[in-house]
Every structure is written in structure tokens, then in C-alpha cells.
């Protein structure tokens, strides 16, 4: 359906001129001759964008703008005027106007500005739709005392700007907790940027965090903003913070202490306004004692500790999580959910869940796909749990008819080992690294080299 534009101006000829221009471009138009009329139109049916005059007789568009924004917070409003001062333009922007264009109006300026406003609206609508689809991931599901304590702590710390260190085993929902803190904070309208510290090669950590200038190093063909800069005005979530190298820890500490960064290869000091949330499944006190984590950085990050209990300590929440993920998978895959018998649910409750909530979510997704619309008993649950993933085959023997090079054969076997371990670990990279007796950073690097995506 064509976008709907509300034209607000006390001059009828301006409304007619703009209406003709916009209808010729395929837009639908509505009109109002005053701020009160515009508010009534918006409350009746919200348009996709508004073009509003700054001065309308005795009425000011600046007075109407806050009322429109209150009625429709995501509605882009473009202000127009032929006799506005710079201070008027600044005030309009502060009140939430999308843009300010001067009269006499140029068709090109009107259409270009309107196109940008509609792109913004489309992006906001898409973001809201995604949030509605994925928003259940920002909820801590459960009624156990452990989950209630987490929920209460999130409610206390979210409105503040305090740094939070989230701890817990892999799969307990540390990213969910960080997301919940962000979206319940005053920074909810800003970006929520995530960075997995274990996944960054050591020589690229500084570039990932702080960005780089063109030519700063081999391969830096253009300027790139880092995560700190992108997250300014919002929240930066540093996952697996315990895997950050000591050199990277020093650079992170400096950014936290000064609130400023410099891009790699640059000389400009950039001020950033970022709330930092971190997470780890390591004991950072032990890491500090072992000399692998800076004590001063630990104290900077450990302002508010938030520990997430493993699923085995809250078996009473399994049934609620089952309902939650069943509904999620029904929406995601458009399948009729399976019907779990009492014995099937009991088997899920009794399972130790070493991979915690993440493992349960993966198992339930598999059940939803394999047994859509059918009855599922304990036998089916045991079969799915037993067949969580194939283990890699034994190393192949030398064959004269295999014309591949040594490197190609080794890559093929390594790919089998890695995919087998990842399947066995339900996609949990940390658990796969433990099974392979290596660190996560090394496993991530090998996965990238072999084009293994999980």
C-alpha cells in the first residue's frame, strides 16, 4: 500500500501544491489546517510521515510537535518554514522533528527528505517487528527462587548506568540477561551492541573495539567504526570477557577510565557514552590470582555482580521453558507443535542439561521439527537426547587413489573433528572446545578458516 502523508499548513494553496506533488509520486495524502486538526488526524489513523508548517497563524508548529510525538512516538515529522531562525530549527530538532526544510519548497528537497523519513519509519517498524518476534528471548523464563532473584536484580540495576558483570555456566542465558538490562534502561532507544571477546583474533581486538582509519594496517582499505563508537548512546555487551588478552584488557581499561577512544591509525580522540555489560563463565577472581586477568579491570567491571543459576538447580522451571520454546518454535517454523505426554515431560525434567537452557532450546526445536503435530512419549525424548549429534569418524587411512594434497586431506579430517564436536555440544562452542581440549579462541579461528558456521 502506498505510504500515507499528512500535510499540515494553514495555507490551502500550500496543501494543494504539496498534495499534487506527492500524489503524482504515488503517495496517499491527507490534510489538516492546524495543529489540533493534525492531532485529530493522527489519533484517527496514524500516517507514515507528516509535513508540518512551523507557523500557522496564531498557532506554532512547535507547540503541536510534542503532542504529535506523544500520540505517535515513532512518527517522523518534517517541519517547514519560510521565516524560521536557526534557534527555531534547533528547537524543532530537540523536540523530535525528523528534519527542517525552508520555503519556498523545492520538489526535490521535499521528495528527498520525505524519502529519508519513510526509510527511517520502515527501519523502525522492522525493528519493532523483530523485537516482537524475538522479544521473548529477553525474558528470564521461570518461577524458581533463583530466577526471581535474577529478575529482581535486573529491575534494580537496569535504570542505572552501573556496570554489571554477569556470570554463569554456558547456556544459562547471560546474553538474555544483558539484553533485558538494556531494554529496561534509559538507553533502550539506543543501540545494543554485542561483541564476543573469544571470537576475535588477538591482532584485531583493538580494531574491533575502537575502529581503524584507512591504511592503518594491511587490509584496512576504508575507515571503520569500532563497537565502542557504534554503541555510543546505548549499551556495549562484552561476552566471554575472561578470554580477552592482557594487551586488550589494558586498552579496554583505558577506554573505561577516560570515556574516550582513538581509532587504530588515527589521532582524533573520540568521546563515547556507553554503558558496559560483561559476561563470563570463568571465575575471574581465580583468573586475577593466576595473572591472566587484570585486577584493576576486574574492579572496574565488577560493580554489580549478577549470577545466573544452571538449569539443573531449577528443575521446576523446565516445564515453563518447554511451553515457552514450543510456542517460539511454532511461530518460527509455522508447524503444529507436538503433544508431549506426561512421561516425556518428566524425562525432560530429569535430564541434567549440561548445556543448560541453550541445550534445552536446541532439543525442543529438534523435537518440534521431527514430531510436529504428533504425540511424543518418553521413548522419543530419550532417542532425541541419545542422538544429540554424530561423533567424527576415525581418521581415514592413506589411499593411493586419493589425489588430494596433504593439506586438503588434513583440512577434511579437521572439519570432521570440529563439526562432530560442535554437533555433540549442541552448537555450544565453549563446550566443543572443552571436548577438543583447546581454547575457544583457537576453535573460532579454525572454524573461520574452514568456513564452519554455527
UniProtKB/TrEMBL annotation:
Claim: Lyase is one of the keywords in the record: no
InterPro entries (UniProt xref): AAA+_ATPase, AAA_lid_NorR, CheY-like_superfamily, Homeodomain-like_sf, HTH_Fis, P-loop_NTPase, Sig_transdc_resp-reg_receiver, Sigma_54_int
Domain Sigma-54 factor interaction: from-to ranges: 140-369
Stretches assigned to the Response regulatory domain: 4-118
Organism the protein comes from: Longimicrobium terrae
GO molecular function, one term: ATP binding
One protein family per Pfam: HTH_8
Gene Ontology biological process: phosphorelay signal transduction system; regulation of DNA-templated transcription
Official protein name in the record: Two-component system nitrogen regulation response regulator NtrX
UniProt entry keywords in alphabetical sequence: ATP-binding, DNA-binding, Nucleotide-binding, Phosphoprotein, Transcription, Transcription regulation
Keyword DNA-binding in record: yes
Highest taxon above the source species: Bacteria
Positions of post-translational 4-aspartylphosphate modification: 53
